[in-house]
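Thread: quick sanity check before group meeting

JM: Hey all, I'm pulling together slides for Thursday and realized we never actually wrote out the predicted structure for the chain we discussed last week. Dropping the sequence here so it's in one place. If anyone has concerns about the input, flag it before I start.
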Amino acid sequence: MAKTPPPSKKATSSGGARKPAPCKTLQRGPQAPNGGVKAKTAGKKAAAKNKANSGASAAAVGMPAGVPAGLARILRPQAAGRWTMPMVSSCTPQYVEMVLRGALTGNHVQQWELFDLMLDTWPELGACQQELTEGVMRQKLVITAFAEEGEAATDSAVERQKLVSAAMRRMAPDVCADENDADDTLKDIFSGWFHGVVCLENDWHSVKAGKLGQIIAPRATMWAHPNAFAWSQEGRLCLRDGSGLIPFPQHKFLVGIHKAKSGSALGGSLLRPLAWWWCAANFASDWLLNLAQLFGLPFRWANHDINASQDTIDSICNMLQNMGSAGWAAFPAGTTLELKHESVSGDHSPQGELLDRADRYARMIILGQTQAGGQSASKGSSKAFGVVEDKVKQARIDAAGKYACKILTGQLFPSIIELNYGDRDEVPVASLIAESEAGLQEAQRDAVLSKLLPLSLKQIRQKYNLSEPEDDEDATPFPDRSAPDPTDPDPNADPLLNPEDTDPEEQDPDEPTDKDLADQLAALCGEKSDALFAKQLKTLAASLP
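JM (edit): ok, ran it. Output follows.
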């Protein structure tokens, strides 16, 4: 069993960290009622003093002007981390169990390397990871102003939302240094969904943001190797430095922890249940390769003379053996050769079944799917079953996106607000929405609602990805709602909206009255779910005579 290494007193080459300098916050002054930044005289003097001090200290450590020295980079860039895992062929079930048990005692680095090796050598697992990651990355990051429940956002909250949005759009990473912009930051944060723990370092700069003026914003983020952090004896994740373990400096790191089950994060990684199946698949692959070598080629059968010498028999045996990689053979006179194909194995070998089972478990744990999306989807899975599994997969994508947005809302956005305003009030909220056009059900719903209440054309265009017409000639004719319908004998009478115009004697007692239909349609308009709206509308239409 792997023993937990004591906290290192000397920074390693793969996780060394400089001791962070104290961070000074640049004050932007108190918020004015109209949402503008209005600083008092004392606030202006303090802000100017802080700015001068931070500028001088930043210049001393090579930081951009206007950025406090405490926001300087801490982790040293590394070409590659130390690899401590053995070869894949040496990862026996006993070794995998030792790594997983060692992680429970704090040796999280070796567990991370095991999971990284699994993603490198297991195609189905890597495909599931990419499928889930790309599903999240296809969505659009939306930053919403903070608002109390049931209330509209204040002017100051809207201003702070604009500042955070401007800061995220002005990230300027160095691609050659493997730094992240906003999208790549989300992707690196999302790796914690699989490994259990992820850490990114923030690098800051001072940038001009239009009418907002000069702001402190994240320039880039850098993924931190697990050697750079460790768990303390109290069960707290800390940063490694030359003196041991220290708390993460304020505003400098983003930490993501995802637990697939309750308990310690060291044993809650999503990939832990798949470690044994990855090991079994490795051995099954070797067995399947040997099986293909044995049964992939026909058996060679040679009959030789009973009086043949031993040298002749050895020559025949060598020739039969070499025929596995050669398409010719030469035998002594009197030798007969037969190729037997009866022993060719079928598609369902025990080794193949074990590999398929491992792939199926990987897809089930990562995406919640068993057939839809996999290779067996075309072998008889029904369309309805595929729709259900697609909804389960979308639910996993939404949950993973919520995990990434929680880190932005709870860690990065508060740092941006505090560094620019001096407090953490009215922090904006991050969310991910799907960038897709509305479908037929939404169109039917909007068509019914348009007859009952006015709808926003701007919202409709955004919902269906429709562009604004350039002029009247480019636009289709819009129906005149004020003009009477010539097919209607009495355009002023609408029994649906005026149920009192209907003669009660002509009404069938078994049929719903016009007032009942109006009440049902009014209740139907309040339904927020498109699926339930379409289902209830279909049921209502079927009940009409």
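AS: nice. The chain has a mean pLDDT of 75. The longest strand covers residues 197-208.
JM: adding both to the slides.
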